[in-house]
Amino acid sequence: MFQIKNGYYFILLFLILSNCTSSSSKEGEIIEDDEIEDIDDVVEVSNFVWKNWYLSVPIDRADGSKKATSIYSDDILADNLTSEEKKYFYKNDDGSYTFYTQFTGFTTSGGADLDAGKYCRTELREYWKGVNDTDDNWYMDSGTHEMESTLQVNFCEGNGQTYVAQIHGKASTTLSGSPATVKVQWKNGDIVIEYYVKPDNGVWTSNYDEKITIAKVDNEKFTIKLRVVNGVLQYALICESKSINQEYTDLYDYNSNGYNFDNYFKTGNYFKWNEDYTEAAEVVLYSVITNHY
Which of 92, 94, 93, 100 minimizes the C-alpha distance to 56? Predict the structure, then answer.
C-alpha cells in the first residue's frame, strides 16, 4: 500500500507540475502576443513623429490676420480638433491621415481673393528638433538631411496639381528671397520636381527654377524621397503598383552655387488652385520619416 501511495503521489505530483508548465506556456504566449501588439504600436508611432511637425489647415485662425489655422502635435495626438478642422485633416482606420484642401482664402501668409496668386493647403511643416519654434531649421552646407513621404492622391480637381512634398528656405533679414527651394508636384498623375537654381540677380525665387518629370504614379500609393547631402539635392521614388523603384539621383548642388538659407521639410496637400471655392484635392499620407545626421 505504501508503494502504491507513493506511486499515486508521484503521478499526482507529475500531473500538477505538467499543468503548471502548461499554464506557464499559455501565459508566455499571452505576453508574447502583447509584445507583438506593442511592436505594432511602435511602428505606427514611428510613421509620424508628431513633435517634429505642425499642421496648417485653410481655416481662419480668428485673430484678425485672416491667416490659416495652425494645429500642433499635442492636439493631433489627443485628437483635439474641431469638427471644422476634421473636415480637412483626420485619421483613418489603417493609421494613415487624410489631407483635404480647397481654396478658402485663408492662406499661411494671410487672406487672399480668388486668382490673387495665393493658394491654400493642408500641410505639415517640420520642426527639425521638435522644439515648436519656426527657427528650428537646418542648413544645407553640411551633413545629410532626408525626408521620405508615402502618399496617395485620391483626387485632385481644378487643374489637377497639388504639391505633396517640399524643401522650403526660411526667410532671412540678411538674405534676399524666401525660396520654396524644392517642390514635388503631383500633376495629373505625374510626379514633377520643381527646384530653384542659381539666380542671375542673386534673389532666389521661382523666376529661376527648373522642372523634371520623374514618372507617372496616377492615383496609386507612392514614396517620394528627398535628400540633401553636403548641399547636393537628391531624389528617389518608389511606386510598387507601377513597378517604379528609382534610386537616389543627384539633381543640383546648392552649396557650390551660393545657396545659404536655412531650411525645413513640408509634406501634405498644397493645392495649386484658386479660381473658385468649390474644387478640391484629397491626399492620404501613410507615413513621413525624417533624418538629420
Answer: 100
The CA distances from residue 280 to 113, 163, 187, in Å, are: 16, 13, 14
Query: What residues pair up with 111 in beta bridges, in sequence order?
Result: 106
Which position has the grid cell 489631407?
99
- pTM, two decimal places: 0.84
Main-chain dihedrals φ then ψ at residue 5, nearest 5 degrees: -60, -45
Contact 192, 217 (CB under 8 A): no
98 is written with which cell numbers? 487624410
- 41-89, pLDDT tens digit by residue? 433 446 999 999 999 999 999 999 999 999 999 999 999 999 999 999 9
| Short-list 59, 49, 144, 66, CA closest to 100 | 59
Residue 238's identity, in one-letter code, is I
100 — alpha (psi -120 to 50), left (phi > 0) or beta?
beta
The half-sphere exposure of 10 on its side-chain side, counting CA atoms within 13 A, is 6
> For 94-141, how does the pLDDT look when each residue is reduced to its tens digit (9 = 90+)?
999 999 999 999 999 999 999 999 999 999 999 988 888 888 899 998
**Are the C-beta atoms of residues 207 and 198 closer than 8 Å to each other?**
no
**Partners of 125 in the beta sheet?**
54, 266
